[in-house]
Amino acid sequence: MSPEELRTARERVSLRQTEAAKAIGVIPNTIWRWESGMTVPHRRFWQAIEAAYRLSDPQGPATRDEVHRLARRVSDLEERLDRLTGEGLKDPPDGGP
């Protein structure tokens, strides 16, 4: 997708750059850089971009509420991951040193 197509896709689902960034898992400046053509999205972000912008959904673009729910879910999962990596996973799972 071109930078203009990325911006158009984001705008079609009524997302601000900050909202899109949260849903995709990047900082807002990254969205701006993609849309200005300074950089291109790494392939690891395409699934999140497609989900946030509903690019491959036959039902069409996501609503703002759906994207907010997705962003909250991403945040919840990040918090759970932080808790898991912060407690208990410091010890090797095999009981070794």
Instruction: Please report the first level of CATH classification, the CATH class.
Output: Mainly Alpha
Residues in helices, as a percent range = 55-70%
The CATH homologous superfamily is named lambda repressor-like DNA-binding domains
Q: Which class of secondary structure composition applies to the elements?
A: mainly alpha
Tell me the number of helical segments per DSSP (H or I, 4 or more residues long): 5
CATH architecture, please?
Orthogonal Bundle
Overall structural domain count: 1
Shape: globular
Percent of residues in beta strands: under 5%
Tell me what the structure shows:
The chain has 97 residues and is mostly helical. It has a single domain, classed as 434 Repressor (Amino-terminal Domain), CATH 1.10.260. 60% of the residues lie in helices and 0% in strands. The protein has 5 helices and no strands. It has helices at residues 3-12, 17-24, 28-36, 46-53, 64-86. The longest helix is centred in the last third of the chain and has 23 residues, at 64-86. The radius of gyration is 16 Å and the shape is globular.
